[in-house]
Structure formats: C-alpha cells, structure tokens
Amino acid sequence: MTPRPYLLFVRAGADSLHRRLIAEDPARNWDCCVSWYASAPEEHLAEYYCDGGDNKLEGFLEFWRHRGAPSLYRYVWIIDDDIYLRPTEVSRFFDLCEQYSTYVSQPALRWFTHTTLNVLVRNPACLLRRVSFVEVMAPCFSAAALEQLIHTFDWTKSTWGTDWAWGALLQGKRPLHVIDAVTVAHTRNGDSRPGAFYRKLTSMGIDPAEELRRVERMFPQFVGARTMRDGHVFRSGIPQTLAPVLWRLFERLKFVVRWRKQFLRRWRRGRARVERLVHDVR
Q1: pTM of the model
Q2: Residue 275 has what pLDDT?
C-alpha cells in the first residue's frame, strides 16, 4: 500500500470521532492511525492501529518507535478523539499546510465551541494567522518540526506544558500558525467533571497544573500565547487597507467567547447547587 502524503493520528476511546472523519472524507489525502486508550473494538477503517502510552503523545511515541511510519509523511496531525471537522476539511487543512509551508500549526476553534485560549479562536478576516502558541489538543507538525520537537513528547504525563515548550523552543526561530480557513469543534463541553484520564493522573499522584508550572519555569522568557503583529494571510476579497482593521477588530471581539464561557460555568455551578438542594430535600 502506497502511503498518502499526510498522517492523522487520533488518540481514541470508544466514542472517537475518527470513524466519522474517515467516512466523510472519501477522497482523503491522509492516512489514519488510531491509538486506543480504551479496549480496542473490532474495526478496519484506519491504515494503522496501536495502543500503549499513558497519554496521546506517549501513544504517538509508541507508534513512532515500533513502526517508523511517520517518517514517510510530510505532515503529521495529532488530535484528541473529540475533535470534529466538517466533511473533507481534514484534507483541506493538510492542503493549506502544504500550500503555505507551515512548520507547526493547528486549525482555528469555532467561536462557540469549548475552548481555553481566545488566541486559537477563528479570526474571520484571516486565512492563516501567525501565533506564538498552538495547543496540545490538535497540533500539526511538518516532518522537520516533528524531528525537532519529538524529544519533548514525554516531558509531562498530563501533556500540560508540552505545548508551552513548543512555543518557547520555536520563539524567534520558526513561525507557528492558526489556519482560520478551517475550523474545528471541540465536542466535549468541559463541564469540570474529571474524565477517566484525569482520574488516572490523580491515582498516579500527578497534578497537571504543577506539570505546567514546571515547564513554564524552564522557559521564563517565553511570551506566552498570543497572536503576533504580522505574518498573517488575509482572506481574498478583503481590501488590503481594510484587512488589518478587521483583523484587529475580530481579535478584540473575542471577549464574547470568554464572557460566554464564564456565563456557562456559573450557570452549571448554579444548576449543580440547585440539584443538590433538591436531592437533600427529597
């Protein structure tokens, strides 16, 4: 079997969306590797299946060491299993990485999906936006970037802080990009209830926040997550004089994303208090 030029690596549980991504991209330009963190069901959709490792990046290292297959690919995209893109958008994302020779990148997050950093939320004025940071949830590496950064993949057990290290190591040397032309939905709602992975970390005595702080202390000069002042590719059809104005406007409007997230967090906490009161009364 001749490999396609790109690889999508999915760390997958029983409800993984990789099946849908494959089915909805019939002429895909990418191979798929599924790394199971749960019991592996019987399926034959992807080109590769593997297991092992306590987290997504360790799972990728297991695949790398035993198969050597990633070296065949021009881009490798490593995602969580709750990431969803519209039909054929995985192929389009890889095409844009190739067209613009990205080094490390990720697609933009939709405005009203679950997100942590507004920097990574889509800017409608841009096709491609230069940033200082991409998130461990869905980073895409060129072959050269993967070779440069793979030694960091086992720096933390939680994966918290590993993406901070990528930004720090590349700062002033290589650009990082958010591809705003392609958006993803983060389908889990982040309702603060710990999932199986975080319960496992707790049982191992691992504090993700402390792992993040440890990596941050390693790179005190890193600027953190931000959209850079230049290096963006604006959407076609927007006048050159207007494009920078719209870019800045949309960046400022992202406060709406933060406000909505805070509102939903308060609402969920309030609902939980009401449910506890009702339970106590009963």
Answers
A1: 0.90
A2: 67
